[in-house]
Amino acid sequence: RSGFRFRFDDNVFKPSTDTFLLGDFAEVRRGERVCDLGAGIGLLGLLLLARQQQLHITNIDIDSAACALAEENAAVNGLEDRVAVLRADLRDRTALPKAGSFDLCVANPPYFPPHTGRVAEGSRGTARSETACTFDQLCAAAAYLLRSGGRFCLVHRAERTAELMDVLRRHRLEPKVLRFVQKNAASAPSLLLMACRKDGGTGLAVQPPLLLQNGDGTETPELRRIYFKEKG
User: What is this structure's pTM?
Assistant: First the structure.
């Protein structure tokens, strides 16, 4: 209420709970330089700015329609001085900002390896499946863009936890904080939220799970807060 607004297009990957969860999970500090890898319409950057206004956000995406919406969302909120949008391929380092430019990278990446299951065509398919950028390539981009000691925060499917950790560590992105997301207390985790540190030492803090529903099927107070339905 009385906060940022955003626009989206059904032909571009639509806003999801995952983005709101990551927007709340990622730690942000005043004055930090933040890069959203595969930013889409730029919603994640808005969620971070809603918590800490003194950030500099760079949204990178390969899709021109998504980049246009990200620019529009920055403009409609008067954030042109805080938000930059770069249309680029994360696999092409010559198109990216210089190495070590950022304190924090965030990503809500495609969840599914290429050629697994049925995937939509076009930009929506690219957002769901690793057809344009694999998780390994995403981690390589994050490691390149982060300064030593910088942080990488992401949301992903819980079933890929072991694989994700292996890839992250190969790129010197040490997992430091892990939180699983569950529908309710009786269900198995479906998602994970993870914070990594470039060149960080070993040691992983596992937080209590984030529950989306109470036993009666209503939204938990934490989820309502994350969606800005309640203060706190």
Answer: 0.91
* 86 contacts 39 by C-beta, under 8 angstroms: no
Count the Cβ atoms, other than its own, within 10 Å of residue 79: 18
Q: Are 58 and 34 in contact (CB under 8 A)?
A: yes
**Is 206 within 8 Å of 161 (Cβ atoms)?**
no
Q: What is the pLDDT of residues 38-92, one digit of tens each?
A: 999 999 999 999 999 999 999 999 999 999 999 999 999 999 999 999 999 999 9
Question: Diameter of the chain by CA atoms?
Answer: 52
What are residue 116's phi and psi, to 5 degrees?
-125, 115
- What does the DSSP assignment read for 129-176? BTTSS-HHHHHHHHHHHEEEEEEEEEEEEGGGHHHHHHHHHHTTEEEE
Say if CB 135 and CB 116 are below 8 A apart: no
